[in-house]
Amino acid sequence: MERYIWSKGIFKNQLEITHGSNHIGSIVWESLIGSKAHGMIKGRRFILSREFFLSKLEIYDGNTQELLGTIMVNLFNPKSDIILNGKRFELEVKNFWQSRWSWKFNGDELITYQSNELLSKDKGTIEVYTACTEEIEILLLLGLFVRNQFILFMLLILLVVILIIF
């Protein structure tokens, strides 16, 4: 098992991934609430994008611009699927606060994420249970991209509620 740390300030457009003291990856959004981001992990580059209302997320190879996968997420459904290289992977959000989530393949957890802090600063851990799949880097970044989009959506809902109350 490999253990990574991720961190992203709530009002920052960059997420960092480290392994011990080594920086191994990042996601940089084009703007604070932007729908497009550039990801890098272990030297491999990706482009991540989402539709305005969060439901459709895509990941592209950063060099060839080839679409690698698309996932449809729903704030009210804890499970989503993506097909990568002909294999079906399942993303499962484990609790209402979206502080624990994981990627599964054939029912086995491949990657688990844990958020340690609430909204002031996102920070957490990633545990990767296998190194035998070539899709791990894609899933690792996509899991963090999905998390960020859920947080943005929850903040938008909170803002709407506040505006309605006042």
CATH class: Mainly Beta
Taken together, the total number of domains comes to 1
Q: Kindly state the mean pLDDT as a whole number? A: 85
Number of helices: 1
Q: Over the alpha carbons, how many angstroms does the gyration radius reach?
A: 15 Å
Query: Looking at this structure, what is the CATH superfamily?
Result: LURP1-related
What structural class do the secondary elements suggest?
Answer: alpha+beta
**Strand composition percent:** over 45%
- State the distance separating the first and last CA atoms: 49 Å
Q: Which topology does CATH recognise? A: Porin
Global morphology: globular
Provide structural commentary:
With 166 residues, the protein is α+β, with helices and mostly antiparallel strands. The chain contains one helix and twelve strands, in the order ββββββββββββα. The chain has a twelve-stranded antiparallel sheet, with helices on one face.
List keywords for this structure.
single chain; 166 residues; alpha+beta; Porin; 12-stranded antiparallel beta sheet; 1 helix; 18% helix; 49% strand; globular
Layout of strands and helices, then pairs:
Blueprint: E1 2-9, E2 14-19, E3 22-29, E4 36-41, E5 44-50, E6 56-61, E7 67-72, E8 79-84, E9 87-93, E10 100-105, E11 108-115, E12 121-128, H1 136-165
Summary?
The chain has 1 helix and 12 strands, in the order E-E-E-E-E-E-E-E-E-E-E-E-H.
